[in-house]
Amino acid sequence: MSRQSNRTTDSKKMNSELFTLTYGALVTQLCKDYENDEEVNKQLDKMGYNIGVRLIEDFLARSTIGRCQDFRETADIIAKVAFKMYMGITPSVTNWSPGGDEFSLILENNPLADFVELPDNHSSLIYSNLLCGVLRGALEMVQMAVDVKFAQDSLRGDNVTEIRMKFIKRIEENLPAGEE
Amino acid sequence: MADESLFEFLHMEIVSHIFNEQQSGKGEMDNKDRAACISLLEAMGFRVGQGLIERLTRDTPSFKDELDIMKFICKDFWTKVFRRQVDNLRTNHQGTYVLQDNKFALLTQFSAGKQYLDQAPKYLAFSCGVVRGALSNLGLESVVTAEVSVMPSCKFQVVIQKL
């Protein structure tokens, strides 16, 4: 049995069903804990934020990606590198606003919602709202204040799942003197 | 394919959410509250285990006996869920099994020794539930507990309930 115990290559990849089902169990639990869907959405976002602020470190360490020059580059990296690394999908980046400060991520299939069907009495639940928190938290750690929300959700009858991201402002760095 | 760090972070958030939820309202937590949190996490894991095993055993031939099921849990199931095989499986042949994992996935980031040992139970409850849920859908009702003496090594004790 110990034959495989030293195998470390590619060990970062895991069974995504475990993740999907665990997330489902969490949402179920939150729906029990809170009276209304709004409160659940808020809680998911908060938990996502907590994950995002930690996940960014993991991401930067593993991807060796430096600072982004503009929001377009940020969008590309989120879609092509980050989503690929953590969720195994590559959303498409579309619907740029003329000012280049707003774009949409279109998810063909959302791994979080793999085996999910929303019951009728949860029509305002944003099932995958954790993702918004993760994106917001992660970007905040690289000095970008961004507004993230679901514009469309296939779970709620839309054709695709769309996450809308809007750049708000660059967060000023307060580095101690002498540090780069 | 999802990434393991994402799952680890999610798991941490779940644990802290459950405990904060219980704690808000009252100041201090007593042992009863803690037990309630643990069983809540265990119940969440149970449901996840039930779902997982259905997906994993789709193409497996049916099992001969109880030991066969336990071997499946130690090899295939553990590899799929915790990315390594159980290092040691022991049994008294009367329905009690001890599964030892010397490098349990959810503990490796904590410490390599006795630090934070008192925190370990809350990070194992979910996994105990996962194992129990899996066994339950294979027709074995059981009680699963976990024991840690030095991180990141962990022993899961499975006691099959004879009906």
UniProtKB/TrEMBL annotation, chain A:
Listed name of the protein: Trafficking protein particle complex subunit
GO biological process entries: Golgi vesicle transport
Xref: InterPro entries: Bet3 (IPR016721), NO_sig/Golgi_transp_ligand-bd (IPR024096), TRAPP_component (IPR007194)
Subcellular location: Endoplasmic reticulum; Golgi apparatus, cis-Golgi network
Stretches assigned to coiled coil: none
Gene3D superfamilies found in the cross-reference section: Trafficking protein particle complex subunit 3 (3.30.1380.20)
Entry GO terms, CC: endoplasmic reticulum; Golgi apparatus; TRAPP complex
Keyword S-adenosyl-L-methionine among record annotations: no
Subunit structure, as described in the record: Homodimer.
Family the UniProt entry places it in: Belongs to the TRAPP small subunits family. BET3 subfamily.
Key words of the record: Endoplasmic reticulum, ER-Golgi transport, Golgi apparatus, Lipoprotein, Palmitate, Transport
